[in-house]
Amino acid sequence: MKNLNEINIIRAIMCLAIVLTHSISNYLRNVEVDQAAYDQYILWIRFALLCSTPIFILLSETLISKNYPNGLQKGFFWKRIKFILIPYLLVGLVVSYKSAGGDLAVFIDVIQKKVLYGQWYGFFVIVIFQFYILHWLIGKYLARVNPIGPILISFVISFAHVYCYVHMEAYQNFILNEYPLWYKTHIFTWLFYFIVAFYIGQYYEQLVTFLTNKIWVPILMTVASYGVIVFNYKVMDYGRISSERYDMFLFSVSVFFLLVALIRKFSFDNHTLVMISNFSFFIYLTHMIFLPYFVKLSMTFGDHFFSYVISMAFLTVASCIGVAFLLYQSKLTRHFTGKIKYLEPAVPKKKVEREREPEYVNN
Fold it and tell me: Rounded mean pLDDT of 303-324?
């Protein structure tokens, strides 16, 4: 499996963006914010960071499509169950226990809602497994057709689904009452990202070459798509702070294209970001466990927006990495982290080439 530098860097950036997003939310809960300051820059930073979860999810299918062009290999699902689903379940239990306040009956109820239905920030794992199944079912058919049709159809489905959920109460009630899992995990919300990511993986090098040669294209796409978000907020009064916004589809893909082009064009590399990328899955699953406990410590740096958010994000990421390092020392507790290549002993190059690991864990 080719270890793509830009994928590692982007995954790390999106992981940090997710932590920053929740650090900002924590700041707004604990610090009295002047509305003028919020409207001046905080809101626009929040909107820009909302693409982090979609891109994080998009990366998964991109790598699957690129690394498995001839179909999924034997053992594909077992590895993902072992390295992705089991950590999701175990960390979900910890999050549920934390939310239950020591009450056993409440704990069981919370487990059902969070772990089974996906009503927590770890819901992305449920989305990813839906991607795995879709790739297994229709990947070979998608590879045979022109990408334009599936991309347009999936965009219409995803856009219509999210738009109707936001603006049509009857449709929203239908999803909330009839869909068995949390509404954020609905495949229609993420179908566009799946199809786009599938074809990005299929034509990865050709696409990257085009983007780096004509870098004005992803720049223009990013500016224009963010302009749509600004228009929807200013003119259409669409202020929803959620990665499932219907104007987030094009912005997320545009940001991904821009980052790939910039990193490849300027051969950007950073060992710290590569290291964070290796821990990104565990950071994503556990950051909200640690983040609330750093409120008082972050406040010692002042209640200024940037000092608070940056210190909060730094402390949270450092704690997640530290705990992952400690858990990885035992084969028993290692089930909480999944496989982290950064902490694995060096293995012969030929063996590495033979093994294809879960895309969220090692690349």
Answer: 94
- Stretch 288-294: mean pLDDT, rounded? 94
Contact call for residues 27 and 309 (beta carbons, < 8 A): yes
Contacts 24+ apart (CB under 8 A), 221-230: 221/250, 221/253, 221/254, 221/257, 221/258, 222/251, 222/254, 222/255, 222/257, 222/258, 224/254, 225/250, 225/251, 225/254, 226/47, 226/48, 226/251, 229/47, 230/44, 230/47
Distance CA 287, CA 13 (A): 15
The 10s digit of each residue's pLDDT in 160-218 is 999 999 999 999 999 999 999 999 999 999 999 999 999 999 999 999 999 999 999 99
The tokens describing 80, both together, are 């993902």
Contacts of 327 (CB under 8 A, 6+ apart): 333, 334, 336, 337
Q: For position 297, what pLDDT does the model report?
A: 86
